[in-house]
Amino acid sequence: MDHDDAGAPHTVEAFYERLRHDGHGLPKRLRQCADYVAAHPDKVAVSTVAELAEAADVPPSAFMRFCQELGFSGFSHMQKLFREEYTQKWPNYATRLTKLRDSGNDTPAALLAEFAEAGRNSIENLARTVDAALLDEAVAILAQARTIHLVGNRRAFPVASYLAYSFEKMGIPAILHSGVGNLKLDHLLARGDAMIAISFAPYASDTVELAEEAERRGVGIVALTDLPTSPLARLDAVRLFVPEIDVGAFRSLSAALTLAMAVSVAVGAHRRRHKNGK
C-alpha cells in the first residue's frame, strides 16, 4: 500500500484506523511490525527502532519500511506521535514485570503476585480505554437480537463459555458454538440474530470463519479482540478492544472476562427494561 499522498496519521486513533483498513494487506514482516506496535504502544514511545525490531522479530530495515508505509518520514516521526499521546496514558507496567522475570523468582507466590498485578493493570487499562459509545451500541444490538451466538475458541473459550452461562441464567436465548463432537451449528445463523465473536492473537481460524459466515448472513456482530489488525476488526462489527498485560509468554483473561461480565449484565438489564416498558 502507498500512503505518501495521504500523509502520516496525526493521532494514534487515526494510526489504528489506518491499520484496521490496510494492515491486512501488508507483507508478512510489516504485519509483524503492525501487530507489535498495536499491542505495545507504550514501548514505541520509549524504545529504539532496533529494540522494537528485535521484539517484533524483524530486521530494523523492516521496521523503518513499516513507518514509511504508514506515511511517516521515518521512525522518529512515528515515535513522536506515540510519545505525545501515550507517555501520560500508559504506565510502564511491563518494566516491573520484566524485572520480576529477570530475577528468576518463579516460585508460586511470586507468580501469583505477577498475575494479580497484571490482571489489575489490564482491568484498569480497560476502564480507561473502552469506548462508551461503542459499548452502548454493542449492548443495544445484543439486547434486540432474537438469539445470541457465541464463539471464542482456544484461549478465548473461557470468555465465550462464561457468556453462555450468564445468558442462560438470565433466560436470554444464546447458542455456544463450541465445536464439541465436531458438530457444526452454522445453519442456525439467521438475520435478526447477533453474535459475540472473541479471539486474541494468535487468532483462531474457526472463530474468524464463523464470524465471516455470520456477516454474510446479515447477523449483527460484536467483536471482542485485542488489536486493530485482528481479522475480527475487518468485519462489519462493533469492535471492542481488550488490553491484557502479559506475564512472560502468558496472558490472563482478566480484562476480557470483566468486559464480558459487564456486557452480559447490561444486555440483561436492557431487555428487562424493554419488557417492563420502561
Overview of the structural elements:
With 278 residues, this protein is α/β, with parallel strands linked by helices. It folds into two domains: 12-86, Winged helix-like DNA-binding domain superfamily/Winged helix DNA-binding domain (Arc Repressor Mutant, subunit A, Orthogonal Bundle); 129-275, 3-Layer(aba) Sandwich (Rossmann fold), CATH 3.40.50. Helix content is 54%, strand content 9%. The chain is built from twelve helices and seven strands. It has helices spanning 12-22, 28-39, 41-46, 49-56, 60-69, 75-86, 93-102, 108-129, 132-143, 157-169, 205-216, 254-275, and strands at residues 148-151, 174-176, 194-198, 220-225, 238-241, 246-247, 250-251. The strands form two sheets. A five-stranded parallel β-sheet has the order 2-1-3-4-5, with helices on both faces. Strand 1 (148-151), helix 10 and strand 2 (174-176) form a beta-alpha-beta unit. Helix 9 (132-143) packs across helix 12 (254-275). The longest helix is centred in the middle third of the chain and has 22 residues, at 108-129. The chain is globular. Residues 1-5 have low confidence and may be disordered. Residues 138-275 form the SIS domain. Pfam families: HTH_6, SIS. It comes from Aquamicrobium defluvii. Residues 13-89 form the HTH rpiR-type domain. InterPro entries: Homeodomain-like_sf (IPR009057), HTH_RpiR (IPR000281), RpiR-like (IPR047640), RpiR-like_SIS (IPR035472), SIS_dom (IPR001347), SIS_dom_sf (IPR046348), WH-like_DNA-bd_sf (IPR036388).
